[in-house]
Amino acid sequence: MTISVGLTKWQSEYVTSKAKYNLLIAGRRAGKTHCEQARMIHDALTKPGSQTMYLTPDGSLCHEVFRNIITDSAIKKRIAKTEKQPARQIFWRNGSRTYMRMFDRPDKALGFGFDHVIFDEIQKLDSMGGRDDFMRVIRPLIMDRKGCLTISGQWRGEACWWYKWYKEQEFNTDLRLWNVPSWEGIKFWPLKQNDPEILDAKQMMTPQLFDQDVACIPTGNANAAFDYYDVKDCFGGKSLEKGENGRRYVIGADLGKVVDPSAWVVMDAKDKQVVHVSLRKLGEKHIVGARKLQELSQKFNNARVIIDATGGATGGKRNKDVFLKFYRQYVKNLGKKIITQQSKEDMISKLNLAFQNQTLFIPDDQEALIAQLSSFEAKPGRWGGFKYMGPNGHDDDLVIALAMVYDAVDRGRATDADTSEFEESFTRT
Ligand SMILES: Nc1ncnc2c1ncn2[C@@H]1O[C@H](COP(=O)(O)OP(=O)(O)O)[C@@H](O)[C@H]1O
Ligand SMILES: [Mg+2]
Q1: Bridge partners, residue 380, by sequence
Q2: Do the beta carbons of residue 389 and residue 376 sit within 8 Å?
Q3: Is the Cβ–Cβ distance between 137 and 108 less than 8 Å?
Q4: pLDDT for 158 beyond 90
C-alpha cells in the first residue's frame, strides 16, 4: 500500500499545512490516520533531521501506523532502520526520526524537542484531567523546537475541551480546523452521504452516536446524559438581567472555587423558564460570590437561593456545610439541597424527563449552559446506578445548578415559607 499518494483535497491541505495548531476532527473512517501517516512521511522526507511524535491512547492503532509506514514499498528504501523498544521509532536515512507511542497517562515522561506532535483519537483520552493536563504534558513537547501540534478525533459535546479551545482560538491564524464527516472519506465515494454503508449506520446507531462518530458535529456525544434533540426542543424564552414585576424566581447555585467555578441559574417559578445564567470566575472568593449572589437574589424579586450541601455522613469530599453557614450571613433567602449520589441521580432523571416533556425552557442564547448540557455524560457506576459528570469530570457546574433549581421549582420551594431540607438540617448561627 502506498500512502503517500492519492490524497483527497482536505487531506492534502492538512499534509502541507503550515499552521502551528492543526485540528483534524473527522468522522470515523474519514481518513484522519491515513493523512497523518502521509504527513509524517512528508515531514520526514522534506525536512531532513526533523523529529515527529505520533501519540494515541490506542495501543494497537499505534502499532498499525508504525507498520503501515515501514511497509510502504515506495518509501521503504528511505528508511535506515527501525526500533520497537522502548518506543516504536523510524530512523530515516536523511536523519529524520519518527516516533510512535501509546499515550495513556499524564505523568508519562515523553522527552522534549519535537518539530511536530500528532495526537490521534483525542476523544479516547479518558484518564486525563482535560485541557490543563494536555497542555501541561503534550504542549511542552514542541517547545524546544518551536514545533507544531495536530489533534485529531471527534468532538464529544460542545463543552469538550478541544471544542472550547478551538472556539477561543477561532481568530488565531495559526490554527486550522478540518471538520469532516465520515462520508467525505474515500471509502464512501462517489455516493457520500447516500452510500449504503452510511445509510445503514444511521439506521443502526443512536442519533447521538451517529452525530459524534459519523457526522462529526460538535453537539454529538455518544455518552450524553440528555438527548440533545430533546434539549433543543426546549429552547425558548428570553434572558433577563432582572426580574419582572410580580413574578417569583428561584436561583440554583452550585458552589465551587478552586477546581470548578461557581454556577448560578435563575428560573421563573411558574413557567419553569430559565431567565439568567452566570458562570463565576474560577478562584472567586466566597465573600465576593456571596455578596453577588445576594445582589442577584434582590434583582430577581428576592428570589429564593438554593445552594448545594454535602449530606453529612454520605461521604462528600468537600465540607460545604461550612460554606453554607458562611453564605447564610449574606444571602437572605437561602435554602439548601443535600447532594448525594442518589439525590443527584433523582435530580438528573427529573431534568431528563423535563426535557422530554418540554416542561422547562432555556433561552437559546445561553450558550455556556447549552454546551454543558450537550457534553454532560452518564456512565454506569461501579456499584450500580449512574455516575454523572461533564467531560473529564469538569464543566458540569451549570448543569448541576440547573438540576437544583428545576428540582426546587418542581417541589414548590419558591417561597420562604418552605420548610423542607433546609430547616430540617440547618441550624441558624
Ligand atoms: N486518500 C486515501 N487513499 C486511499 N485510501 C484511503 C485514503 N484515505 C483513507 N483511506 C483508507 O480509508 C480507511 C479509513 O481511513 P483512516 O485514516 O483509518 O480513517 P480515520 O482515521 O479517520 O478513522 C483506511 O483503510 C485508509 O487506508
Ligand atoms: Mg484513525
Answers
A1: 386
A2: yes
A3: yes
A4: yes
- Is residue 33 within 6 Å of ligand 1 at its C-beta? yes
Strands 334-339 and 79-83, sheet pairing: unpaired
Q: Is any atom of ligand 1 closer than 6 Å to the C-beta of 186?
A: yes
**Domain 228-425, CATH among 3.30.420.240, 2.60.40.2470, 3.65.10.10, 3.40.640.10:** 3.30.420.240
79 phi and psi angles, rounded to 5 deg? -95, 130
User: What would the DSSP string read from start to end of 167-194?
Assistant: HHTTT-TTEEEEEE-GGGSGGGTTTGGG
The domains of the chain are located at: 9-215, 228-425
Task: Map residue 374 onto helix, strand or coil.
Answer: helix
Task: Please choose from 34, 39, 178, 189 the residue to mutate so as to test ligand 1's pocket, defined by most ligand atoms within 8 A of CB.
Answer: 34
Burial (CB count <10 Å: 0-12, 13-18, 19+), residue 269: buried
Dihedral sign, CA of 39, 44, 46, 47? positive
Sort residue 109 into left (φ over 0), alpha (ψ -120 to 50) or beta: beta
Distance CA 389, CA 358 (A): 23
Which of 1-10, 187-196, 224-233, 399-408 bottoms out in mean pLDDT, i.e. has the lowest? 1-10
Task: Establish how many alpha carbons lie within 13 A of residue 56's alpha carbon, considering only the half-sphere containing its beta carbon.
Answer: 19
State the alpha helices, DSSP H only, in 285-332: 286-299, 321-328
* Residue closest by Cα to atom 23 of ligand 1: 29
pLDDT tens-digit readout, 306-342:
998 865 443 445 566 777 889 999 999 999 888 888 8
Of 283, 331, 274, residue with least CA distance to 303: 331
CATH of domain 9-215: 3.40.50.300
